[in-house]
């Protein structure tokens, strides 16, 4: 692949995406296998939100999904990968970085994309019913990381509180 220097909105959004991922990584890096895998929310019906492990699995799978939506919007016929669950934080860190690289490579391969689209018929319709242009979908991907980073921070606090109470 030719080394394309990204600029403008795409570069800014990718920088923010990477920043959000790096912040998430700094939060999960100190966790051990037990903290990663323990069920924190026994009450949720959302299987993606029971433990830090399930949240991270969801984040990685969704991150690939967002890029695949964009790829398919420009005529590529890509299939979203299945969810892969891991038992260590380092495996998730690796997957988060690979997920970002996959997205970044999409923009390097398509540097002249029209990322803003006002024509509704050209918007990307996602499986939860919303319609996005590429810019909005990338913004959604960033906020998705931020929301789940916050959720993981709260899970870590809850684990810490439970550890204090059990002593």
Tags for this model:
61% helix, two-stranded antiparallel ribbon, mainly alpha
What does the model show?
- Strand 1 and strand 2 form a beta hairpin.
- This protein has helices at 8-28, 33-37, 52-73, 89-109, 134-166; strands at residues 124-125, 131-132.
- The protein has a two-stranded antiparallel ribbon.
- The model has no long low-confidence stretch (mean pLDDT 95).
- The protein is 61% helix and 2% strand.
- It is built from 5 helices and 2 strands, in the order ααααββα.
- The radius of gyration is 17 Å and the shape is elongated.
- The chain has 167 residues and is an all-alpha fold.
Helix proportion range: 55-70%
Task: Please tell me how large the radius of gyration is.
Answer: 17 Å
The arrangement of helices and strands along the chain is HHHHEEH
- Beta content: under 5%
Q: Enumerate how many helices there are, as a single number.
A: 5
> Order of strands in the sheet with the most strands?
1-2
According to DSSP, the number of beta strands is 2
| Mean pLDDT across residues | 95
* Cα-to-Cα separation, first versus last residue: 56 Å
Structural class category = mainly alpha
Low-confidence stretches: none
What is the molecular shape?
Answer: elongated
Quaternary state of the chains: single chain
The biggest sheet amounts to: 2 strands, antiparallel
